[in-house]
Amino acid sequence: LYPAGSPRSRKRPMPARKKKLRRKKNAQTGGTEEPQTSRINTYTHPDYGFVFSYPDGFRVGRFSEGGGEIVLVQGQESKLGFQIFIVPYEEKQALSKELILKSAPDMKIVNERTISLWDGNVEALSFESENGSFGTTKEIWFVNEGTLYQITAPIDFDGELEKIMEIWRFI
Question: Looking at the whole model, is its pTM more than 0.85?
Answer without folding.
Answer: no
